[in-house]
Amino acid sequence: MIVNHLTEHGVMDAALLYESPFTDITPQDPDGLFTPSWVDELVSLLEEVYARAIA
């Protein structure tokens, strides 16, 4: 879903991970799917993609 969103929009605000349709998978948001360190890494990667897109 993240890849699809990035493909369609080019960037993705990490806050979207805590909204539908991402929250439809598990009620614990990304924390229910990934370890805390993976969530931190995912957020960092999304921020890096955004920074590069606006540069």
Write a structural description.
By secondary structure, the chain is mainly alpha-helical. It has one domain. It has helices at residues 2-9, 36-54. The radius of gyration is 11 Å and the shape is globular. It starts with a helix and ends with a helix.
Q: What tags apply to this protein structure?
A:
55 residues; 2 helices; globular
Question: Can I get a quick summary?
Answer:
By secondary structure, the chain is mainly α.
Topology record:
Blueprint: H1 2-9, H2 36-54
List the uncertain runs: none
Query: Per the principal axes of the C-alpha atoms, what is the gross shape?
Result: globular
Mean pLDDT score, rounded?
92
As for the number of domains, it is: 1
User: Terminal Cα separation, in Å?
Assistant: 25 Å
What share of the residues does DSSP label as strand, in percent? under 5%
Helix content: 40-55%
How would you sum up the major sheet? none
Number of helices: 2
Radius of gyration: 11 Å
